[in-house]
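User: Here's a chain of 371 residues. Predict its fold as tokens.
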Amino acid sequence: MKYPYTIIMLACVLVLSGCLPGFGTRKNIPANGGIARSADGGVSFERRNTVEGVEVDEKLAVSFSLARADVTALAIDPQDSSNVYAGTKRKGLYKSSDAGASWKEVTFDARSVTSLAIDPRDSAVLYVAATWESRGSLFKSKDAGESWERIYVEPVSDTEVMVVRIHPRIPDEMYIGTSINRSRKSTIARSRDGGITWDNIRTNDATIKDISFDPQNVDQMYFFSSRNDILRSADRGQNWESITKLKRDDRSQRYEGTVQSFLVHPQSPGELYIGTDRSLYRSENYGDTWAEVDIIGSSKGIPIRAIAMSPISDNQITYASAQALYVLAGSDGQTNRWKITDTQSQQIISTILYDPNQAGVMYVGFQGVSR
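Assistant: Prediction complete.
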């Protein structure tokens, strides 16, 4: 019976050569990134990178790892926290049904995923922004990833749908933002019927990197663009104002540096955070004025590419600076105390996601981006 042996040897050759779909060795990327999970508020982390279910023959299943994957997006099922989705830059889309202990690749043609969203009313409805045949697209699944339909597509190649967000107070409304196209224009578009039809909210001259909503004011929205700017709208996109270009009485009321990340406080209206390549900044008046947050000095001057806040533990602001994670432990109003965790990765933290149902549980995603 030499055939099973031959199949095993062939599988090994394919794995080592990177010929199996989505799984190259990528030797230049350290194998200590991927996804990590914390159950104690970021004090310690466990790697959650095991991918199961790639069958070489009916008797042999090979486990692969996401440790070298560039993780671009994470989403947690709002009704069942054991279900977690992960989007990657080149390896496609994955789902875990055991809180990240193991992953299975979702049957999904696009390999490069940029954003994920789950319908808060029906967690079987999933939206994935991805690039398919060089064109930015949005896909929808009504059965938790078993089947897909393409509900939005860009007209030309080399344009991406960068972000998809469902309005938390109006679940029928969904927004997308794109990268700039050949004409140096990008789009913010809205659907009010689950992606069947779309209307154009704004045409921009910069890539839209994120979309956020105010927790209390249903009409207040924010769009983070690649032009080092945050746009805000108080009427759900009818009128816009640049936060960066607002006139301020004092230079100290501005944020400094190039914006890397943006966060709207999930409970406090008008409270915003910006991470730059200089420091972390907070606004308590919808972005009118900004003040630098008291953070650890050695994390300044390093791009803060991810900010998050627990939706359960009030004011537990968390930020990432390269490979280190900082969680606010307390404050006297002037001096902040931080819990600092070394993620023991040679890749940088690009994504932080708190579990909406379990206090202290968070996931971080890594990417092979230089400092």
